[in-house]
Design goal:
With 303 residues, this protein is an alpha+beta fold. The protein has eight helices and 14 strands. It has helices at 12-23, 36-44, 90-100, 123-131, 173-183, 194-204, 255-270, 282-287; strands spanning 4-7, 57-61, 64-70, 77-82, 103-104, 112-119, 135-136, 142-148, 163-166, 214-218, 224-233, 238-246, 274-277, 290-301.
Length: 303
């Protein structure tokens, strides 16, 4: 039976693709697809340009989703999710991405371009993009790392005056906004207003989120010194780390590490055997995360 194509219809298709990613997840993320919490995080992140959601492409067989081609925050990027028996759709999906998900460069005479993200363990897709004239942008590589959850779990230590808490205990969106803003080095002048606080709430109170897994370290003055957003996916029994931020004046005290490990510990208690993070920072490697694969950015100017 021939596959059929259609465009994404939000919000009805949001849950269907979420379930598609859960259904086809394999241990160790051997399927190579996005982890389902990443799909959730994308949709509620303030960086998302929602006006283009209808350009996401869906391939179906007898009403069942078998492949998805989508951007994350903005046009100009393409990600590819597959049912394991439908990887032969690679070329058709790349054609679709070039025609529908291309962006307009702001620095190269406004040329159309596409960054196609291809896993480094998919030789057929790598050969396809290279045959089409794409070239690799190493600085845009997106690694996936995994952490095997040990039993017994390592003890957590905090400096005197600091304590672990969570959004279940302290749902203070002003504190969350402040540590995220400063932790991602946006500067000292933090815009403190209700619109910003609501944006943070929407970002972390996503449909499947648990406030008890959004971990913070409270400083002696009561402000959040570090923060970790943690997701738990019960079907695949894994944790997903996204994001982590530490107030600059409290760095190198082990506070960010403490939030990550506490979140992983809580997910382990729920049944998780592994935690994933989309980063290869030394911070995560020092905790014990090990690389699974890279999702490489392959760039092409289309005109």
């Amino acid at each position: 039976m021939k596959t059929t194509f259609r465009h994404y219809n939000h919000p009805q298709d949001y849950q269907r693709i979420s379930q598609f990613l859960i259904t086809h997840h394999q241990p160790g993320n051997a399927d190579g697809n996005w982890l389902e919490p990443a799909w959730e995080y994308m949709h509620f992140h303030p960086a998302l340009e929602p006006a283009h959601l209808g350009k996401i492409g869906i391939w179906e067989q007898a009403g069942e989703i078998v492949a998805v081609c989508h951007y994350e925050w903005h046009l100009g990027e393409a990600f590819f999710q597959f049912h394991p028996e439908y990887r032969h759709l690679r070329e058709e999906m790349l054609d679709y991405a070039e025609a529908n998900l291309a962006g307009i460069s702001k620095k190269d005479d406004r040329r159309r371009y596409l960054c196609a993200y291809v896993n480094d363990n998919d030789p057929e897709f790598l050969a396809l993009v290279q045959s089409r004239g794409y070239y690799k942008e190493p600085d845009e590589t997106r690694p996936l790392y995994g952490f095997e959850i040990a039993d017994p779990f390592p003890a957590l230590m905090l400096p005197d005056g600091f304590r672990l808490t969570s959004l279940a205990e302290e749902p203070d969106w002003a504190k969350v906004h402040q540590v995220m803003w400063r932790g991602f080095d946006h500067g000292e002048d933090v815009p403190m207003n209700e619109a910003e606080f609501e944006s943070r709430r929407a970002m972390f109170d996503t449909p499947k989120a648990r406030r008890d897994l959004k971990i913070a370290v409270s400083a002696p003055d009561g402000e959040f010194a570090a923060f970790c957003g943690m997701f738990y996916e019960p079907t695949g029994q894994f944790a997903y780390v996204e994001p982590v931020a530490t107030e600059p004046r409290y760095r190198r005290l082990g506070l960010g590490k403490a939030t990550v490990l506490e979140g992983i510990y809580r997910c382990g208690a729920l049944g998780a055997s592994v935690a994933y993070v989309g980063s290869d920072q030394e911070f995560y490697r020092a905790i014990g995360f090990k690389k699974i694969y890279n999702s490489e950015c392959w760039l092409k100017y289309l005109e």
